[in-house]
Amino acid sequence: MGKESSGGYANEVGESFRAIVPVSLVWASYGVATAYVTADAVDKGKKAAATKSQEEGRTSRAAVAVVDTFIWQALASVVIPGFTINRICTASLYLMGSRTRWPLSVRKWATTAVGLSAIPFIIKPIDRSVDFLMDSSFRKLYSTEEKPPSSF
Questions:
Q1: What are the pLDDT digits (tens) for 20-58?
Q2: CA-to-CA distance for 44 and 5, rounded, in angstroms?
Q3: Is 5 left (phi over 0), alpha (psi -120 to 50) or beta?
């Protein structure tokens, strides 16, 4: 699975800019990311309900699609990457403060650059880890013969 829209990366970008923007903008980036996650879950639920196979199981298929997609996206698109970028930026700012004599404004902009440049490197490992977590836990509760919609 991967993020299908730029809205899925909003909170990582927000976390990257945390050192130089008001914290309210960072929280707003989480609002955008959460709206994306919710919209994707609803979309997957509608698609699962629209399939023509087994009319009797449409509601449960749709519910599983919504829940599976929402949990997967919340973890892989919001919670884990946001935390990861936050920690990378915090460590970066701290290390630059203790190891360089750069002015604070330069350290803050460099921290933002470090956070933004880290985003492409964290996505696949996080996606794979969340797939493993979901397959090892939640997906066992509602195991189906078909792949969950969030795996498409």
A1: 999 999 999 999 999 999 999 999 999 988 876 666 667
A2: 14
A3: beta
